[in-house]
């Protein structure tokens, strides 16, 4: 598991754990593998679920785990309501990768170390990326139409070999996309703040060129397929705007695996409706759930999924398995993995 590290918060060799999640979340079974030295103080989703805790129990909590999906998910407002009761909290872990729906001022400005599940979801998202590329390269909708009409009409298909995949945000998800694209013998270019390749990246031989953020339009123009793999932060808000979309090749395909608010959705819809780009594959949207009146539902050149490209049967179980590993580091006084930059939002 990749991720940043930081000097470890002090555990004193013991963890009193508060779990913010619906108690029926099946992935909580993974916590049976927590190492010795961990006491689960309570599990619940709302402040009312923890009303039975004594002041001494609140004061004992030094680790908080936020997890769960859908109705079982711990919410930011609930965690914020609990915050004043947790004077000795030193570490909070989020079982999700994105932080935009979690951060609040007391967490950002305070001393509590925040970690997340960055990297757990990368491979499934990368598989979706290459599936989307093939969706357009092989014109799979045409196959389905011909099958439904019992029409035998051979047609030329494209290879991904030799095509360029441009990756906006070359973190864990972007790098996973690049590795699979390279297996298809695609050319890979990427965009991130640090333009130098590490020795490990040079040895891997995946990415040919790194563009700095101020050359986004150059990356868009250089790519047959563009995949957005950034978190949503103030710096990435509407990062792909009308001008960036206009820089794409006419046959270009835009894929978004990051966050919907990183893209000017109205400008993207306009380009798709006008046929100025070939198509888009979207797993994330500016507003979720996507409203029923969105034009995206009706566009034939859009592959649309309801923010579930990483929602495998295993994803939450694997996420909590990573937390268990990190707990071992915490108890051993070792640096935690996946320490987040709370101010930057990732």
UniProtKB/TrEMBL annotation:
According to the UniProt entry, its GO molecular function terms are: NAD binding; oxidoreductase activity
Keywords linked to the UniProt accession? NAD, Oxidoreductase
CDD domains, per database record: 2-Hacid_dh_1
Keyword Transferase annotated: no
Q: Name one Pfam family in it.
A: 2-Hacid_dh_C
Highest taxon listed in the record's lineage: Eukaryota
Cross-referenced Gene3D superfamilies? NAD(P)-binding Rossmann-like Domain
Which InterPro entries does this UniProt record tie to the protein? D-isomer_DH_NAD-bd, NAD(P)-bd_dom_sf
According to the entry, every stretch annotated as the D-isomer specific 2-hydroxyacid dehydrogenase NAD-binding domain falls at: 137-309
PANTHER family, per the entry: 2-HACID_DH_C DOMAIN-CONTAINING PROTEIN, D-ISOMER SPECIFIC 2-HYDROXYACID DEHYDROGENASE NAD-BINDING DOMAIN-CONTAINING PROTEIN
Instruction: Indicate what this protein is called per its UniProt record.
Output: D-isomer specific 2-hydroxyacid dehydrogenase NAD-binding domain-containing protein
- Record organism: Gonium pectorale (Green alga)
